Amino acid sequence: MANVVVVGAQWGDEGKGKIVDWLSERADVIARFQGGHNAGHTLVIDGEVYKLHALPSGVVRGGKLSVIGNGVVLDPWHLVSEIETLRAQGVEISPETLMIAENTPLILPIHGELDRARESQNSVAKIGTTGRGIGPAYEDKVGRRVVRVADLADPATLELRVDRALIHHDALRRGLGLESVDREALLASLAEVAPAILEYAAPVWKVMTEARKAGKRILFEGAQGALLDIDFGTYPFVTSSNVIAGQAATGVGVGPGTIDFVLGIVKAYTTRVGEGPFPTELHDDDGQRLGERGHEFGTTTGRKRRCGWFDACLVRQTCATSGVNGISLTKLDVLDGFERLKICVGYELDGETLDYLPTAADQQARCTPVYEEMPGWSESTEGARSWADLPANAIKYVRRVEELIDCPVALLSTSPEREDTILVRDPFAD
Ligand code: GDP
Ligand code: IMO
Ligand code: MG
Questions:
Q1: Is the minimum distance from the CB of 223 to ligand 2 under 6 angstroms?
Q2: What is the pLDDT of residues 283-334, one digit of tens each?
Q3: What is the mean pLDDT of residues 322-348?
């Protein structure tokens, strides 16, 4: 029985949600292990669109166990409203199908306020965050002053936790010119939301261990992408969690040996939302065309995504840091009709050629891409469901990508629809 980790191999929005949904048919448990509702995962099933932020993409399929692990930061009010939205779309969610780790840190309104205040007050420090309090909540987790799911069960503990957080936050808020926190209102609002969260609370590490022993298949669902990783991303223009595959084990409480196959989700070109370096970014008609054909607007914030050519150099690097065994190449159809396609194979920096993105921010910003050109294809690949349906030049493009990133293709995606997916090598069969 193989357990599979799905991770984004670029700057997020690679199409992880679609692939997790597709793969979840083969899985018993689907677990989120990092990030929060900064994620936006869109699924399209028979024309119906589902947008998931905090919930694992497995909930839509029904009959599976969806898990929110301790590596996630959870906004309880957001979760309640996301559950309501999905229920209104006919998705069944109950304590039998959803579990939340008791040791999951909570995102409070003060985290969102701090996130947005920092972003608006200091243009030098602007990251272009989703404004959802992700960074401040992780800071409080590491600072040992966060409120966790289990704390909601006991009013006395909850008060202690809130007071511990407020000593820090009120000092910070004074410096930023924000009003001090209304302690009573915060406690009342936590008490109100507590029952709706506690009904899903469980010792997830134990549930996962038992699932493994029972031979259940686990699908770990990553959010964001490796270049937004707190350690290996384009720091400081990153998110505040480890998003690479190693985090999957820590983020739910299982050993690293649990992971049998790492599937990297890779868009056939590159996009990024927010600030930060992006060597292959295009500001011309090609970039605009990628954005229009790919409908590149953020699922979470509605922001326009920056677009550029495929960067094989970066994806080779992210496949290495996540130990990717195979990729799922998505949005190949968006490249239909381009006469010529460019792939970045390295960078030029100060007269030297590099085969990886350097760590220093000033160097990252100065790297210029070295391109290889390939002929495009005029035929449509949209909705293709087998290799045989792909034009020869599209196959050449895919093969060249595999060579350059040093990793084979396991799945290919040719439209937003669940079934428009080509299976090349089953990750669960490994
Ligand atoms: P995620 O954050 O990695 O789950 O990706 P998003 O859902 O934010 O963004 C991917 C977008 O592309 C979504 O709107 C998907 O419906 C869509 N999508 C996924 N795969 C394909 C594909 O193969 N072709 C096209 N045209 N769209 C796709
Ligand atoms: P999915 O799971 C794309 C980006 C933000 C910003 C940076 C920090 O849909 O791929 P944060 O709010 O996390 O502190 O913002 O990270 N970002 C994403 N970009 N896809 C995502 O998630 C993202 N989640 C965060 O735009 O640049
Ligand atoms: Mg997304």
A1: yes
A2: 999 999 999 999 998 877 888 999 999 999 999 999 999 999 999 999 999 9
A3: 98
What is the second-level CATH architecture of the domain 109-197? Answer: Orthogonal Bundle (1.10)
What distance in Å separates the CA atoms of residue 175 and residue 231, rounded to the nearest whole number? 28
H helices present in 25-75, as ranges: none
User: Is CATH 3.30.420.40 the classification given to domain 4-103+200-261?
Assistant: no
- Per the annotation, the verdict on 406 as an active-site residue is no
Question: 25 C-alpha vs ligand 3 centroid, how far in Å?
Answer: 21
Residue nearest to atom 26 of ligand 1 (CA): 415
DSSP string, 242-288: --STTHHHHTTT--GGG--EEEEEEESSEEE-SSS--TTB--SHHHH
Query: Looking at the predicted structure, is the pLDDT value of residue 267 above 80?
Result: yes
Give yes or no: 41 in active site.
Answer: yes
| CA angle in degrees (0–180, nearest 5) for 250-194-140 | 45
Q: Decide: 346 and 368 in contact? Cβ < 8 Å.
A: no
Q: Per the structure block, which two tokens stand in for 269?
A: 């070109």
Per-domain residue ranges of the chain: 4-103+200-261, 109-197, 265-429
Query: How high is the pLDDT of residue 123?
Result: 66
